[in-house]
Amino acid sequence: MRASARRPTANAAGLRPPAAGRLALGLDIGGSHMAAGLVDASGRVHGWRRRALDAACHPDRAMETAAALLDEVLAAHPEQASQVVGVGMGLPGMVEVTGGRLVFAPNLRWTDYPAADRLAGLTGLAVVADNDARLATLAEALFGAARGCSDVLGVIIGTGIGGGIILDGRLFRGPGGTAGEIGHLTLDLDGPACRCGNRGCLETLVAGPAIAAAGRAALARAVQEDRPGPLRSLCEDDPAAVTAAAVSAAAAAGDQAAREILARAGTWLGIALAGCCNLINPRLVVVGGGVAEAGELLLGPARCEIARRTMSVPRAMVDVVTGELGAMAGVIGAGALVLGDY
Amino acid sequence: MRASARRPTANAAGLRPPAAGRLALGLDIGGSHMAAGLVDASGRVHGWRRRALDAACHPDRAMETAAALLDEVLAAHPEQASQVVGVGMGLPGMVEVTGGRLVFAPNLRWTDYPAADRLAGLTGLAVVADNDARLATLAEALFGAARGCSDVLGVIIGTGIGGGIILDGRLFRGPGGTAGEIGHLTLDLDGPACRCGNRGCLETLVAGPAIAAAGRAALARAVQEDRPGPLRSLCEDDPAAVTAAAVSAAAAAGDQAAREILARAGTWLGIALAGCCNLINPRLVVVGGGVAEAGELLLGPARCEIARRTMSVPRAMVDVVTGELGAMAGVIGAGALVLGDY
After folding, report:
1. In whole numbers, what is the pLDDT of chain B averaged over residues?
2. In chain A, N or C terminus with fewer CB closer than 10 Å?
3. How confident is the model over A6-23, as pLDDT tens digits?
4. Is residue A131 included in any domain, yes or no?
5. Is A51 in the same domain as A200?
6. Angstrom distance (rounded) from CA A303 to CA A318
7. Is residue B14 situated within a structural domain?
8. Can you give the CATH number for the domain in which A116 is found?
9. Chain-chain contact of B174 with A282 (C-beta, under 8 angstroms)
């Protein structure tokens, strides 16, 4: 009675790149900036440009700025305009993907806004929208650090923290389109209040504003104790100059307090990532966004926690790397959303 | 230049049930018991039976016991033996699914054991193996509380805590076959040591042994303070009689300390589930295993934490329910693994 019970298999390749020949406008709206460019099927960006975005501005104003930015991009590349098949837009919050509606953006305080329809009305172009961190992850998986990888967790750390998930070679959105919100995992039960309404979210501990706030406290201590150091000299003792980027630069220059801030953030990041590795067993974690530019000072401590807190099989197979596409990732992913089938 | 940029969609139905007409032997090896039965394509179990399993026993002995149990099941149903196409086996740990090898079972201390090959040698039947909690989730998704649902997180709470994930209507294993290990999410950074090597895992706070230990402490306090109550009378003041089931029964009978134990466990469970809802956005969380029989005394507090700690969209769409298949779920899922394509 020996029969051949089928053995389940779960092999998958990475995402399929878009077919060549077409172009899309990629637009990436973040918590403090927007960026846009023409994206081709190889993930190259033409005419990339960037504008500051006031977090307090009305979304209609932001869409007008975005439309003007896209016009500029097209005006600089008139010969390619006929190849443009549409606009992909990344938004920093929960996006109802099928309708391109922004449900809630904690760091912009936009709620229930028909972003894709509004931008389509202003530009005369077809617009699709998705979560910005998911699109940055898509870009890294198609053209960057996660090329060819079937199971990827992207973590994008900037003003907030977002994420994207690729499973079995497919971009995974979840039935509500919100999968990947790693920034709102509770880590510190009674920790700082988060703009999402919860407390102690990863975002409150590791995103740019948290690192900047810790940097300002370190600066104040150093000033008070009359201790010189890279953080003080880089910021010229001005608390307003202490950004996450300044903390990273000071840490790279050997500032001990700045290094401790990044190490603490990396530890929290690693605890969250260990949970994710146990839960979804990715082959690769790609950490992107401005804060990721701290590199090993952040990722080293994160890897320690992953090693401590992940089960043996998922631990042995996961790598943790920084993204390769930097600030371009969001625009590239937004363009790719239009050019491919993801 | 209006073009029709494709809007991504993410609709999926539930798992497809197995085709009718065949039978499989389902075998569920847990942390303290094994169970087996003949499973048909409708998820019905014929000749279900169960044996205690000594956690300290050698896996070869356990496989011999399992083979004898399967023989008993077949002997009780001789007329159906010719329809049996193989054995599905659930194992309480990380399973290398393609080879049926158990990599590590924390609560049995089995390591790197060729379980499927060994059982196939003993029975002369084809054997496939997978994680026990994943198979229980599969069963609930095919025939139980998650029937027809495309995006499910199963959490099985017994001697340990395991999980299973169904995404976009497909059982998700992850590239290493270990996806779903929700029991090893770190919740309490410096919490109790876990058998996985980490500290403060969900399992150390919410699984049966944690609830029993808290129950024994409550019993000792009640005895010392000479306070009568359901826990004392149910266990006749005997610490050895305090199991998780006894704590649940005492709580159901109104024992305040027992209720607090379950509420605390439910709170931890809810914190972990909130993280999972943010990360993978399930439509349904099914809580199964023996500890789930505590019902609302456990799930009520869990829902509170989910409401506090999950973003609005995933929060609004998720339901948290107990499993419908009870102690049968593991056997049914193991059989279904052979009968269908999952």
Report:
1. 94
2. N
3. 544 444 688 999 999 999
4. yes
5. no
6. 10
7. no
8. 3.30.420.40
9. yes
Contact B337 A124 (CB under 8 A): no
Q: Two tokens at B93?
A: 């740990």
Could you count the other beta carbons within 10 Å of the beta carbon of residue B8?
17
Helix ranges (H only) for chain A are 59-76, 115-123, 132-143, 202-206, 208-224, 230-235, 244-252, 256-280, 296-309, 312-317, 329-339
Query: Is the torsion defined by CA of A246, A104, A266, B266 positive or negative?
Result: positive
Asked whether residue A81 is domain-assigned, the answer is yes
| A101 plus A246 within the same structural domain | no
- B107 with B243, same domain? no
- For tokens 């092999």, the residue is A11
Q: What is the pLDDT of residue B13?
A: 84
This prediction has a pTM of 0.95
Instruction: Please indicate, yes or no, if residue A16 is contained in any of the structural domains.
Output: no
Residues B69 and B106 in one domain: yes
Q: How far is the CA of B46 from the CAs of A151, B42, B73, B135, in angstroms? A: 39, 11, 8, 18
The arithmetic mean of pLDDT across residues A173-183, rounded, is 97
Partners of B171 in the β-ladder: B166
Residue B251 CA to residue B294 CA, distance in Å, equals 8
Give which of B2, B7, B166 to mutate to test A binding, by max A Cβ within 10 Å.
Answer: B7
ipTM of the complex: 0.94
Q: State the pairing for strand pair B23-29/B84-91.
A: parallel
Question: Of how many residues is chain B composed?
Answer: 342
Same domain, A294 and A163: yes
Asked if B10's CB is within 8 angstroms of A97's CB, the reply is yes
Task: Judge contact between B140 and B286, C-beta under 8 A.
Answer: yes
**Residues B126 and B169 both lie in one domain:** no
pLDDT at residue A1, as a whole number: 35
Backbone angles phi, psi at B91, to 5 degrees: -125, 140
Instruction: Please check whether residues A67 and A202 belong to one and the same domain.
Output: no
Distance CA A43, CA B243 (A): 58
State residue B12's pLDDT score. 61
Q: How close B191 gets to chain A, by Cα (Å)?
A: 12
Domain that holds residue A234: 148-323
Within 13 Å, how many C-alpha atoms sit on residue A246's CB side?
A: 24
Calpha distance A282→A207 (Å, rounded): 22
Contact A278 B103 (CB under 8 A): no
At residue B10, the pLDDT reads: 42
- The percent of residues in chain B predicted with pLDDT above 70, rounded, is 96
Domain count, chain A: 2
**Under a CB-based contact definition with an 8 Å cutoff, are residues A38 and A318 in contact?**
no
Which residues does residue B186 pair with via DSSP β-bridges, in sequence order? B201
List helix spans (H) across B55-160. 59-76, 115-123, 132-143
Q: What is the mean pLDDT of residues A279-298?
A: 97
Q: How far is B208 from chain A (nearest CA, A)?
A: 20
Residue A4 and residue B126 in contact, taking contact as beta carbons nearer than 8 Å: yes
Q: Does B304 touch chain A (CB under 8 A)?
A: no
Q: Are residues A125 and A222 in the same domain?
A: no
The candidate with the shortest Cα–Cα distance to A169, out of A142, A205, A195, is A142
